[in-house]
Amino acid sequence: MRVAILAALVLLAAAQAPATVPPAGAVEASPAPEAVVVVSVENMYSAADDTKDVVSQATLGQTVAVLQEQGAFVRVRTPDRYEGWLPRAALAAYPDAAAARYARSGRLVEVTSLMANLYREADVSTARPLLQAPLATRLEVEVEHGERWLTVRLPGGGSAYVQRGDVRPVAAEAPRRRGTPAELVATARRFMGVPYLWGGMTARGIDCSGLASRVYHANGVDLPRDADMQFEDANAAPVARGALRPGDLVFFGRDAKHITHVGMYLGKGRFVNATTHETPMVREDRLADPYWSRIYRGARRPR
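Above: the chain's sequence. Below: its structure in token form.
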């Protein structure tokens, strides 16, 4: 998806340290310090400057590696190993490697709504939400309040109320359950109509590979961030067009070496994607449509 901008990023000064993905198998001299994201959603920029291009987003509760600091910005690596610059105010630093990481132990819930509102008190009408938590965010439970509300501890400190209908309980120590093909399709369709946003990762706005990544993450599978990376992912098996099944990823581009777009196959020749073609939003399209058929380059099934 970002093949066109990668060459330009190479020209940035070393001090700007643009977004990159480390080579597979690269070994760091020592573990990087870590921090937790304390805002709902924050843009990651290609340089320490919020007028530069957005390369991805970090979301509430994610633990990120801190790679470099420059003024009001911090270069981070997110759990999907993508790098970019975040405003320092979006993070709370862990004091050391021994400090407990947010939502790694204790009683947890996971957000099942596209966005869960987190309130100051157990009432939706008395004040605006403190924060929103995107789909698949894990939150630490403090107290249960009857049948409707829970109090959760926020990653930046303090507490908030969340409605039970927005979350489900999860066991911190249990492996995340992989969704079925039907569940992948159902999750993807929930994003229908969400506006296209370059670099977007949530229901506030999302791009093509962000949609694939978020849907699979919510169903227990972590994907690389960009469309070309997802196409080349060693953990994804190539799938012939005649063997496509719901949940498979379908890829598009000038040729197989220049993948710029990804969608999710739904069945019966249709796929869902976040696109700028015709209407900039998450929508369904047909593989047989001349526009898409001309640039179709193959499919992958994440293992």
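Confidence is low (pLDDT under 50) at residues 1-19.
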